Structure formats: C-alpha cells, structure tokens
Amino acid sequence: MSVEYIDAQGVLHENFFLIPIGFLCVFSGLISFVTVGIGTIINKLKKWRK
C-alpha cells in the first residue's frame, strides 16, 4: 500500500497520507464528544431548574 525506499543520498521516502487522516478522525471524535457532552449538560441543567 505504501512505497518506502531509501535514495542514493540515504534519505528515506515514505507516503504519510494516513497521518492526516488519523488526525482528522481524532479531531472529529473530539468535536463530537464535546458537542454531545455540552448538550447533555445543558439538558440536565434545564431539568434541574424545573
């Protein structure tokens, strides 16, 4: 899936396309976790005030 090689000068060449995808997944998970958490807290505060 990923071509890795060392050129004549000894530099490693790799495809790092999975790293940004991983960061995107972590970031979207964090955003959804915070959104659901804030919604839950707001709902509990609304029920507590009644």
Characterization of this structure:
By secondary structure, the chain is mainly alpha-helical. It is 64% helix and 8% strand. The protein has one helix at residues 18-49; strands at residues 5-6, 12-13. The chain has a two-stranded antiparallel sheet with strand order 1-2. A hairpin with a 5-residue loop joins strand 1 (5-6) and strand 2 (12-13). It is rod-shaped. The termini are far apart. The model has no long low-confidence stretch (mean pLDDT 91).
Compact overview of the structure:
With 50 residues, this protein is mainly alpha-helical. The protein is built from 1 helix and 2 strands.
Task: Break the fold down into its secondary structure elements and pairings.
Elements: E1 5-6, E2 12-13, H1 18-49
Antiparallel strand pairs: 1-2
